[in-house]
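Design request, C-alpha cells follow.
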C-alpha cells in the first residue's frame, strides 16, 4: 500500500512544478488557465500529496515562476520524509536501506529531467 501511494506522490511532485516547467519552455503554448487545468486534471487522475509530505504547492511555484530569480531545482527530499514517516522499516539504518535510499535519491532527479523533456516535446507539438 505504501508504494502505491508513492506513485501518487511522484505524480503530485511533477504536477506542482508545472509552472516552473512552463517557464523553461520558450513561447509556452498554454495560457495560465490552461496550465491550471492540466494541474487539476493530474490531481483528478491520482496525483496526491498524501500526508502533506511534499512542501511545494502549485500556487507557490506559480508565484516563483513570475519572479526573475533562478528556478529551484527538483528535490526528492519528500521521499525521505515519506519513508521515515510511513515506512519505518525502511528508515532503519542498515546497508539495504541506505542503498535503497541512495538509489532513489539519484533516480528521482533523472525521472524529473526525463518527464520535463517529454513535457517540452508535447508542448512543442501542441504549438504546431
Amino acid at each position: 500500500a505504501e508504494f502505491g501511494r508513492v506513485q501518487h506522490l511522484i505524480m503530485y511532485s511533477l504536477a506542482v512544478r508545472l509552472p516552473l516547467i512552463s517557464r523553461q519552455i520558450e513561447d509556452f503554448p498554454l495560457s495560465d488557465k490552461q496550465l491550471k487545468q492540466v494541474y487539476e486534471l493530474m490531481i483528478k487522475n491520482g496525483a496526491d500529496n498524501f500526508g502533506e509530505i511534499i512542501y511545494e504547492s502549485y500556487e507557490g511555484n506559480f508565484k516563483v515562476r513570475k519572479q526573475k530569480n533562478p528556478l529551484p531545482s527538483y528535490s526528492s527530499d519528500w521521499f525521505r520524509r515519506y519513508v521515515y514517516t510511513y515506512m519505518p522499516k525502511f528508515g532503519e539504518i542498515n546497508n539495504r536501506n541506505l542503498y535503497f535510499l541512495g538509489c532513489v535519491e539519484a533516480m528521482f532527479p533523472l525521472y524529473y529531467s526525463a518527464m520535463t523533456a517529454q513535457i517540452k516535446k508535447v508542448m512543442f507539438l501542441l504549438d504546431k
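Comment from the thread starter after seeing the answer: thanks! The mean pLDDT is 90.
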